[in-house]
Amino acid sequence: MRDIRVCVFDAYGTLFDVAAAARDLATEPGREGFAEVWPQVAADWRLKQLQYSWLRAITGDHCDFWQVTQDGLDWALARAGQQDADLREALLGLYWRLPAYPEVPGMLARLKGAGLSIAILSNGSPDMLSGAVESAGIGAFLDDVLSVEAVGVFKPARAVYDLVGARFSCIPGEVLFVSSNGWDAAAASSYGFRTLWVNRAGEPVDNLPGRPAHDAADLTGVPALLELSS
Fold this sequence. Notes:
Elements: E1 6-9, H1 20-25, H2 32-59, H3 65-79, H4 85-95, H5 104-113, E2 117-122, H6 126-136, E3 144-147, H7 158-168, E4 175-179, H8 182-191, E5 194-198, E6 214-216, H9 222-225
Parallel strand pairs: 1-2, 1-4, 2-3, 4-5, 5-6
Helix pairs in contact: 2-3
């Protein structure tokens, strides 16, 4: 893929570990009850966060991603019988400081060193993304952080993917788009991006019109995919 000029990454679940907030809180003293249900809460929280973004995109009832993040958490906690205000606030606070997956800094450094333009394209609101980038310590590797708030609709609306070409003056075929969401990678493929689906959970490919061009278990192989020398 030597014709790729721009590498664009989804944020949550791709670069940042979205399960970390619940997992880390479950290890704190006094959280034994939550420790029993945290995997379910983390999974439900993420699912509802995405579902609410899709529904709002369809109905045109847009809000920022922080609102759907809170709404998704409230549903997940209610399902788990963990409706405690202190627990809720602790989880939301940790969400602003999600860590990057271990392979992320080294991978981004390789891409940056090769002269590629690197960006995030995310449903996240600008302040959420700024906090996550700073907490993960990856800001030096990024040329831009693009948020759907610029167009007022969540992925997979085409207007979101348009942000990449507008920012980097490139055509879709010059972009490698990387996402851990199969539906996101599929939509980006239909849009015309070259795509990599980071299939961390080992799930089957979504039955959608677009299909990811490549898939991997993590981000380690991105430089090799782009044929960058070590």
